[in-house]
Design a protein that fits this description.
Layout lengths: L10 E5 L4 H12 L3 E6 L4 H9 L4 E5 L8 H12 L4 E4 L14 H26 L5 E6 L12 H21 L4 E8 L8 H5 L1 H10 L12 H8 L10 E4 L7
Parallel strand pairs: 1-2, 1-4, 2-3, 4-5, 5-6, 6-7
Helix pairs in contact: 1-8, 3-4, 4-5
The structure holds NADP nicotinamide-adenine-dinucleotide phosphate.
NADP nicotinamide-adenine-dinucleotide phosphate binds next to helix 1.
Length: 251
């Protein structure tokens, strides 16, 4: 009997796969057997090389997801290069920090367009391919700010709260069509995205003291949850937002 976590023969599209959480997830999916389309504006050369070293097929798909212009091409190119599309991981995202009283329209639009609008239209393009092919798995990357308010990150909180609602809505519409739509909500993970927080001695100490696990998470910590939500082990899991946070939300 094969493992329910086995992804052999599956193709995963992972956005923002060159670094951080996206790279951690892409390599975990590859380790579980999946071929990888590494999507992003910076070439995911290291990720692709590491996946190939595991014996997987892996291809770079260049796309700037600050607009929805490349969305259909991303799906078409992944299918053309790797033959199919079974798993979509919407990981690419940005954050802008400023007091809400001074927050600009540019900082609002940049974050919401990348973190929410492009995610919806990528889900749509992937689902249009997956439904006639028998289904698939969509994993959106949410945040602690899917559940909490945060501070000085209004567009980020709006986008990640939106990801929570969108994940549930799409699960409602597509569960009967064979697509599982779920999300992973990472806690505080040491990546470029949080470099500013890690460098701030006071904030860093406050964050560490509040995490029951007593440490920042690493991109590798996201891998197990991603493999679970990408595999047949989660076939009856729908619209769930799985926190991988060292216990942050339990506090
Ligand atoms: P990261 O290291 O900054 O990675 C962000 C990724 O998104 C990079 O690959 C980046 O590409 C890509 N990206 C950004 N804008 C893009 C665009 N317009 N088009 C294509 N790709 C774009 O940060 P990370 O922490 O791994 O973040 C990954 C996801 O996890 C994000 O959605 C973030 O909100 C979420 N998250 C992170 C944390 C955390 O504590 N780190 C917690 C909760 C949620 P470039 O390298 O080219 O910029």
């Amino acid at each position: 009997m094969s493992s329910p976590f086995d992804l052999s023969g599956k193709v995963a599209v992972v956005t923002g796969a060159n670094t951080g959480i996206g790279q951690g997830i892409a390599l975990a999916l590859a380790a579980a057997g999946a071929d990888i389309a590494a999507v992003g504006r910076s070439a995911a050369t290291e990720t692709v090389e590491k996946a190939r070293a595991m014996g997987r097929k892996a291809e770079i798909v260049s796309a700037d997801l600050s607009s929805i212009e490349p969305v259909q091409r991303v799906v078409d190119e992944a299918v053309e290069k790797l033959g199919r599309l079974d798993i979509l991981v919407n990981n690419a995202g940005i954050i802008r920090r400023n007091d809400s009283i001074d927050f600009t329209e540019e900082d609002w639009d940049a974050v919401v367009d990348t973190n929410l609008k492009s995610v919806f239209f990528l889900c749509q393009a992937a689902a249009r391919h997956m439904i006639p092919n028998g289904g698939g798995k969509i994993i959106n990357i949410a945040s602690m700010l899917t559940f909490q308010g945060g501070i000085r990150v209004p567009s980020y909180t709006a986008s990640k709260s939106g990801i929570g609602g969108l994940t549930k809505l799409l699960a409602n519409e597509w569960a009967s069509k064979g697509i599982c739509v779920n999300a992973i909500a990472p806690g505080y993970i040491a990546t470029n995205n949080t470099a500013q927080l890690q460098a701030d001695e006071t904030r860093n100490r406050q964050i560490m003291e509040r995490i029951p696990a007593g440490r920042w998470g690493s991109p590798d910590d996201m891998g197990g949850a991603a493999v679970f939500l990408a595999s047949s082990a989660s076939d009856y899991v729908q619209g769930h937002i799985l926190a991988v946070d060292g216990g942050w939300l339990a506090r």
